[in-house]
Design brief:
Spore Coat Polysaccharide Biosynthesis Protein SpsA, Chain A, 8 helices, 274 residues
Length: 274
């Protein structure tokens, strides 16, 4: 019996899926790392032209083309294509750590895991310096049984709400999140996300949008910097908290713009409509 086949049997019955569009920066590393915890990696590509598809295939992924269906819809394609019931939701800038892979493998050693969903910490990795372990991180529902719960088919949201009667586990080890390779890339990312959410989430009352636009940025920034502990990240921690807060504030501004335009009202009080 070869060492390769023995190692393959140790990998749990999990399918990983990744959405891509021009992701040459990290896709090969992301796929190779995912294959340490999943028996297959499915890349759902919406039209890359930069070599992402070739790099993903060379790294061991199965690539399927799917025109963009929205954040949730695109992930649902990954669920549908998955060979196994258990799936791992990974973004194209998230790298599975060896410790995470070992923890998931141990979870399946005695058969079916006891919970239907497992929360996973995402540790941000700045462009310079060490990963931000212990602060500034988020928790996502990354590992789950698709026969028990599924990603919502929503253009903006790609995280599911857990039913009150569903048992949720928590994984100790993290996935590394290389959220941005510099300020230019991150600002472009939050700008795009803010447009999607301003367009598709439920409208907020104008009164609350006024308050958010006037005061919200400092609340968003303060939560990231002080509550989430990004003050421990030095200068880049400050910059990341600032840009994150700006992204949420921009969502509020864009929602206000859209609502006013839909009502046929000018954004400028002294300007008469045509």
């Amino acid at each position: 019996m070869s060492e390769t086949s023995s190692t393959q049997r140790m990998i749990p019955p999990v399918s990983a899926y990744i959405r891509t569009l021009n992701e040459t920066r990290m896709i090969a590393e992301v796929v190779r790392a995912a294959l340490t915890v999943a028996r297959e990696v499915i890349v759902i590509d919406s039209g890359s032209t930069d070599g992402t598809i070739e790099l993903a295939r060379e790294a061991g992924a199965t690539v399927v083309h799917q025109d963009w269906l929205g954040n949730g819809g695109q992930k649902r394609v990954g669920e549908d294509r998955a060979l196994y019931d258990w799936v791992l939701d990974i973004d194209a800038d998230e790298v599975v750590t060896p410790e995470f892979a070992e923890e998931v493998a141990a979870l399946f050693e005695k058969g079916e895991p006891p919970c239907a969903v497992y929360n996973t910490p995402l540790v941000n990795v700045p462009p310079v310096g060490e990963p931000w372990y212990g602060y500034g991180q988020s928790v996502r529902h990354k590992l789950y049984d698709k026969t028990k719960i599924r990603i919502p088919d929503h253009p903006a949201w790609d995280q599911f709400k857990i039913p009150s009667d569903m048992k949720v586990g928590r994984l100790k080890h993290a996935i590394l999140h290389y959220a941005f390779d510099g300020a230019e890339l991150f600002i472009a990312k939050v700008n795009k996300n803010s447009s999607t959410r301003a367009e598709h989430v439920k409208d907020k009352p104008l009164f609350w949008l006024y308050i958010r636009i006037l005061l919200g940025f400092w609340i968003y920034f303060g939560k990231r910097y002080f509550v989430n502990g990004l003050w421990r990240g030095g200068l880049y921690g400050f910059a990341f908290a600032f840009m994150s807060g700006f992204g949420k504030w921009l969502r509020d501004v864009k929602m206000y713009e859209r609502i006013m335009k839909e009502r046929g009202q000018s954004l400028y009080k002294d300007e008469e409509p045509d």
